[in-house]
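REQUEST ID: PR-0412
SUBMITTED BY: lab tech R.K.
PRIORITY: routine
TASK: structure prediction, single protein chain
INPUT:
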Amino acid sequence: MTDAEDRLAVAERAASAGSRVAAESYGRGIDVETKSGKTDVVTEADRRTQRRVIEVIREEHPDDAIVGEEEDELKTVPDEGDAWVIDPIDGTNNYVRNIPIWTTSVAAVRDGEPLAAVNDCPALDTTFVAGPDGARRDGEPVSVSDRSDPETFAVAPTIWWGFDRRDEYAAVLSALVERFGDVRRYGSAQVTLGMVAAGSLEAAVSTVDPNPWDTVAGVHMVRRAGGTVTDLDGDRWRHDSEGIVASNGEAHDELLAALRDAA
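STATUS: complete
OUTPUT:
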Protein backbone atom coordinates (compact mmCIF):
# COMPACT_ATOMS: atom_id res chain seq x y z
CA MET A 1 0.00 0.00 0.00
CA THR A 2 1.37 3.41 -0.97
CA ASP A 3 1.40 6.29 1.49
CA ALA A 4 -1.48 8.00 -0.34
CA GLU A 5 -3.51 4.77 -0.24
CA ASP A 6 -2.79 4.39 3.46
CA ARG A 7 -3.93 7.92 4.19
CA LEU A 8 -7.07 7.42 2.13
CA ALA A 9 -7.87 4.29 4.15
CA VAL A 10 -7.40 6.22 7.40
CA ALA A 11 -9.55 9.08 6.09
CA GLU A 12 -12.30 6.62 5.19
CA ARG A 13 -12.23 5.00 8.64
CA ALA A 14 -12.15 8.36 10.41
CA ALA A 15 -14.97 9.89 8.36
CA SER A 16 -17.11 6.77 8.79
CA ALA A 17 -16.55 6.67 12.54
CA GLY A 18 -17.29 10.37 12.87
CA SER A 19 -20.41 10.29 10.72
CA ARG A 20 -21.83 7.49 12.87
CA VAL A 21 -21.43 9.73 15.93
CA ALA A 22 -23.16 12.61 14.11
CA ALA A 23 -25.96 10.34 12.90
CA GLU A 24 -26.77 9.27 16.47
CA SER A 25 -28.12 12.76 17.24
CA TYR A 26 -29.54 13.63 13.82
CA GLY A 27 -33.26 14.33 13.94
CA ARG A 28 -33.37 14.23 17.73
CA GLY A 29 -33.83 17.92 18.55
CA ILE A 30 -30.26 18.52 19.75
CA ASP A 31 -29.48 21.88 21.42
CA VAL A 32 -28.07 24.51 19.07
CA GLU A 33 -25.54 27.22 19.90
CA THR A 34 -24.34 30.15 17.79
CA LYS A 35 -20.75 31.23 17.15
CA SER A 36 -19.96 34.34 15.08
CA GLY A 37 -23.53 35.05 13.99
CA LYS A 38 -27.15 33.91 14.08
CA THR A 39 -26.66 31.53 11.14
CA ASP A 40 -23.23 30.25 12.28
CA VAL A 41 -24.42 27.38 14.44
CA VAL A 42 -22.76 24.53 16.31
CA THR A 43 -23.97 21.59 18.37
CA GLU A 44 -22.43 19.17 20.83
CA ALA A 45 -22.69 16.61 18.02
CA ASP A 46 -20.17 18.68 16.02
CA ARG A 47 -17.71 18.55 18.89
CA ARG A 48 -18.22 14.86 19.64
CA THR A 49 -17.87 13.99 15.98
CA GLN A 50 -14.62 15.91 15.59
CA ARG A 51 -13.16 14.23 18.66
CA ARG A 52 -14.02 10.79 17.25
CA VAL A 53 -12.48 11.61 13.87
CA ILE A 54 -9.28 12.74 15.59
CA GLU A 55 -9.16 9.60 17.73
CA VAL A 56 -9.15 7.41 14.62
CA ILE A 57 -6.49 9.51 12.88
CA ARG A 58 -4.27 9.53 15.98
CA GLU A 59 -4.29 5.72 16.07
CA GLU A 60 -2.20 5.69 12.87
CA HIS A 61 -0.67 9.17 12.67
CA PRO A 62 -0.21 10.51 16.21
CA ASP A 63 2.16 13.34 15.28
CA ASP A 64 0.35 14.90 12.31
CA ALA A 65 -1.16 18.37 12.54
CA ILE A 66 -4.95 18.59 12.80
CA VAL A 67 -6.94 21.43 11.23
CA GLY A 68 -10.52 21.38 12.47
CA GLU A 69 -13.53 23.67 12.58
CA GLU A 70 -14.37 23.09 16.24
CA GLU A 71 -12.55 23.50 19.55
CA ASP A 72 -8.84 24.32 19.75
CA GLU A 73 -7.49 22.64 16.62
CA LEU A 74 -5.47 24.58 14.02
CA LYS A 75 -7.50 26.92 11.83
CA THR A 76 -5.08 27.17 8.91
CA VAL A 77 -3.36 24.49 6.85
CA PRO A 78 0.41 24.23 7.38
CA ASP A 79 2.45 24.77 4.22
CA GLU A 80 4.90 22.07 5.30
CA GLY A 81 4.44 18.57 6.66
CA ASP A 82 1.51 16.22 7.04
CA ALA A 83 -1.87 17.44 8.25
CA TRP A 84 -5.52 16.45 8.38
CA VAL A 85 -8.38 18.83 7.62
CA ILE A 86 -11.67 17.99 9.36
CA ASP A 87 -15.20 19.30 9.24
CA PRO A 88 -17.21 17.11 11.62
CA ILE A 89 -20.58 18.26 10.26
CA ASP A 90 -20.39 20.40 7.15
CA GLY A 91 -23.93 21.70 6.78
CA THR A 92 -24.83 22.08 10.46
CA ASN A 93 -27.72 24.40 9.57
CA ASN A 94 -29.17 21.57 7.47
CA TYR A 95 -28.39 19.06 10.22
CA VAL A 96 -30.35 20.95 12.90
CA ARG A 97 -33.29 21.47 10.51
CA ASN A 98 -33.46 17.73 9.68
CA ILE A 99 -32.37 18.38 6.10
CA PRO A 100 -30.20 15.40 5.07
CA ILE A 101 -27.59 17.37 3.10
CA TRP A 102 -24.62 17.33 5.50
CA THR A 103 -21.38 15.42 5.73
CA THR A 104 -18.41 14.46 7.85
CA SER A 105 -15.37 15.57 5.89
CA VAL A 106 -11.76 14.39 6.26
CA ALA A 107 -8.80 15.27 4.03
CA ALA A 108 -5.16 14.23 4.29
CA VAL A 109 -2.77 17.01 3.23
CA ARG A 110 0.99 17.16 2.70
CA ASP A 111 2.87 20.44 2.26
CA GLY A 112 -0.46 22.19 1.75
CA GLU A 113 -1.69 19.87 -1.01
CA PRO A 114 -4.38 17.20 -0.51
CA LEU A 115 -3.48 13.53 -0.96
CA ALA A 116 -6.80 11.92 -0.07
CA ALA A 117 -10.29 13.04 0.86
CA VAL A 118 -13.60 11.62 2.07
CA ASN A 119 -17.03 13.18 2.51
CA ASP A 120 -19.28 10.70 4.33
CA CYS A 121 -22.98 11.66 4.11
CA PRO A 122 -24.93 9.19 6.28
CA ALA A 123 -28.34 10.83 5.95
CA LEU A 124 -27.98 10.61 2.16
CA ASP A 125 -26.44 7.12 2.35
CA THR A 126 -23.66 8.43 0.11
CA THR A 127 -19.88 8.69 0.37
CA PHE A 128 -17.61 10.72 -1.90
CA VAL A 129 -13.94 9.67 -2.01
CA ALA A 130 -10.85 10.99 -3.80
CA GLY A 131 -7.51 9.21 -3.81
CA PRO A 132 -4.73 7.92 -6.08
CA ASP A 133 -7.19 6.11 -8.37
CA GLY A 134 -9.46 9.09 -8.99
CA ALA A 135 -12.82 10.06 -7.51
CA ARG A 136 -15.61 7.70 -6.49
CA ARG A 137 -19.16 7.95 -5.23
CA ASP A 138 -20.35 4.92 -3.27
CA GLY A 139 -17.45 2.94 -4.67
CA GLU A 140 -18.14 3.73 -8.31
CA PRO A 141 -15.80 5.94 -10.37
CA VAL A 142 -17.17 9.37 -11.21
CA SER A 143 -16.17 12.24 -13.45
CA VAL A 144 -17.29 15.81 -13.90
CA SER A 145 -20.12 16.69 -16.28
CA ASP A 146 -19.32 16.90 -19.97
CA ARG A 147 -21.84 19.70 -20.63
CA SER A 148 -20.29 22.62 -22.48
CA ASP A 149 -23.24 24.95 -23.13
CA PRO A 150 -23.50 27.43 -20.21
CA GLU A 151 -27.25 27.70 -20.77
CA THR A 152 -27.54 24.04 -19.70
CA PHE A 153 -25.36 24.44 -16.59
CA ALA A 154 -26.57 24.01 -13.01
CA VAL A 155 -24.41 26.29 -10.83
CA ALA A 156 -24.44 26.34 -7.03
CA PRO A 157 -23.49 29.43 -5.03
CA THR A 158 -21.76 28.13 -1.92
CA ILE A 159 -19.78 29.38 1.12
CA TRP A 160 -22.46 31.62 2.63
CA TRP A 161 -22.36 35.41 2.47
CA GLY A 162 -22.76 37.24 5.80
CA PHE A 163 -25.46 39.81 6.47
CA ASP A 164 -23.00 42.59 5.62
CA ARG A 165 -22.44 41.05 2.15
CA ARG A 166 -25.95 40.15 1.03
CA ASP A 167 -25.88 42.78 -1.73
CA GLU A 168 -22.82 40.99 -3.08
CA TYR A 169 -24.67 37.66 -2.90
CA ALA A 170 -27.60 39.16 -4.80
CA ALA A 171 -25.23 40.47 -7.46
CA VAL A 172 -23.60 37.04 -7.82
CA LEU A 173 -27.03 35.41 -8.17
CA SER A 174 -28.05 37.94 -10.79
CA ALA A 175 -24.86 37.39 -12.79
CA LEU A 176 -25.31 33.60 -12.67
CA VAL A 177 -29.01 33.73 -13.57
CA GLU A 178 -28.24 35.88 -16.61
CA ARG A 179 -25.63 33.46 -18.00
CA PHE A 180 -26.40 29.93 -16.84
CA GLY A 181 -29.27 27.50 -17.04
CA ASP A 182 -30.05 26.94 -13.36
CA VAL A 183 -28.93 28.09 -9.91
CA ARG A 184 -29.20 25.91 -6.79
CA ARG A 185 -27.92 26.22 -3.22
CA TYR A 186 -27.59 23.19 -0.92
CA GLY A 187 -26.17 24.52 2.37
CA SER A 188 -23.11 22.26 2.50
CA ALA A 189 -20.03 23.27 0.53
CA GLN A 190 -18.47 19.83 0.78
CA VAL A 191 -21.55 18.01 -0.49
CA THR A 192 -21.89 20.60 -3.26
CA LEU A 193 -18.30 20.07 -4.38
CA GLY A 194 -18.90 16.32 -4.31
CA MET A 195 -21.85 16.87 -6.65
CA VAL A 196 -19.59 18.79 -9.05
CA ALA A 197 -17.09 15.92 -8.96
CA ALA A 198 -19.86 13.41 -9.66
CA GLY A 199 -21.26 15.39 -12.60
CA SER A 200 -24.55 16.32 -10.92
CA LEU A 201 -23.65 20.02 -11.02
CA GLU A 202 -21.48 21.89 -13.48
CA ALA A 203 -20.04 24.39 -10.99
CA ALA A 204 -19.89 25.69 -7.42
CA VAL A 205 -18.79 29.28 -6.76
CA SER A 206 -18.34 31.89 -4.06
CA THR A 207 -16.69 35.27 -3.72
CA VAL A 208 -16.33 34.67 0.05
CA ASP A 209 -12.93 33.49 1.29
CA PRO A 210 -13.57 29.87 2.33
CA ASN A 211 -12.35 27.98 5.36
CA PRO A 212 -10.18 24.94 4.58
CA TRP A 213 -12.56 22.51 6.34
CA ASP A 214 -15.35 23.64 4.00
CA THR A 215 -13.36 23.10 0.82
CA VAL A 216 -10.10 21.13 0.81
CA ALA A 217 -11.66 17.66 0.58
CA GLY A 218 -14.21 18.65 -2.05
CA VAL A 219 -11.66 20.52 -4.15
CA HIS A 220 -9.52 17.37 -4.28
CA MET A 221 -12.57 15.41 -5.43
CA VAL A 222 -13.36 17.84 -8.24
CA ARG A 223 -9.78 17.77 -9.49
CA ARG A 224 -9.48 13.98 -9.27
CA ALA A 225 -12.74 13.77 -11.24
CA GLY A 226 -11.26 15.88 -14.05
CA GLY A 227 -12.57 19.30 -13.07
CA THR A 228 -11.00 22.72 -12.60
CA VAL A 229 -10.77 24.72 -9.36
CA THR A 230 -9.38 28.26 -9.24
CA ASP A 231 -9.53 31.45 -7.22
CA LEU A 232 -11.41 34.52 -8.47
CA ASP A 233 -8.46 35.52 -10.68
CA GLY A 234 -8.37 32.15 -12.41
CA ASP A 235 -5.21 30.99 -10.64
CA ARG A 236 -5.00 27.46 -9.26
CA TRP A 237 -6.98 27.27 -6.02
CA ARG A 238 -5.23 26.45 -2.75
CA HIS A 239 -6.35 26.42 0.86
CA ASP A 240 -5.67 30.13 1.40
CA SER A 241 -7.10 31.42 -1.89
CA GLU A 242 -9.60 34.24 -2.34
CA GLY A 243 -13.02 32.86 -3.20
CA ILE A 244 -13.57 29.61 -5.07
CA VAL A 245 -14.65 28.62 -8.57
CA ALA A 246 -14.99 24.85 -9.06
CA SER A 247 -16.30 23.58 -12.39
CA ASN A 248 -16.25 20.86 -15.00
CA GLY A 249 -13.79 23.07 -16.87
CA GLU A 250 -16.02 23.56 -19.91
CA ALA A 251 -17.10 27.17 -19.24
CA HIS A 252 -14.74 28.21 -16.47
CA ASP A 253 -13.89 31.54 -18.07
CA GLU A 254 -17.60 32.41 -18.27
CA LEU A 255 -17.96 31.67 -14.55
CA LEU A 256 -15.00 33.91 -13.74
CA ALA A 257 -16.44 36.68 -15.90
CA ALA A 258 -19.80 36.43 -14.15
CA LEU A 259 -18.16 36.80 -10.73
CA ARG A 260 -16.04 39.72 -11.93
CA ASP A 261 -19.19 41.47 -13.18
CA ALA A 262 -20.79 40.93 -9.76
CA ALA A 263 -17.90 42.55 -7.88
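NOTES: The domain at 150-262 is CATH 3.40.190.80 (D-Maltodextrin-Binding Protein; domain 2).
REVIEWED BY: pending
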